[in-house]
Specification:
alpha+beta; 30% helix; 25% strand; globular; 2 helices
């Protein structure tokens, strides 16, 4: 299933800046960055729970937020891209 992960991490403090880097680094492990704080991740149920758990442990719930949009398996008709930086289909093999 395709899951869109978005986050907003308060970076007014050095600790916040560290959290932001940690969240971004973890998201890269699970999917592709499509905008600064937005990742498209192709996940099964186990990976979905895993990434949620990892990210929840990083953020400060008092000042930061995470959003998970479950687009399911029929996501291709739900996504429309306009402009630069078109992504790639994470389900297709990469050929270099």
């Amino acid at each position: 299933m395709l899951v869109l992960i978005t986050y907003d991490v308060n970076t007014e403090t050095e600790a916040g800046k560290r959290r932001l880097r940690k969240v971004a680094k973890q998201c890269v492990n699970y999917g592709q960055r499509v905008q600064n704080s937005v990742f498209e991740c192709q996940l099964d149920a186990v990976k979905y729970r895993q990434v949620k758990d990892v990210l929840e442990k990083i953020i400060d719930k008092e000042v930061d937020s995470l959003r998970f949009y479950n687009l399911g398996n029929n996501y291709k008709t739900k996504i429309e891209h306009i402009g630069a930086k078109a992504g790639y289909d994470v389900t297709e093999p990469l050929i270099f």
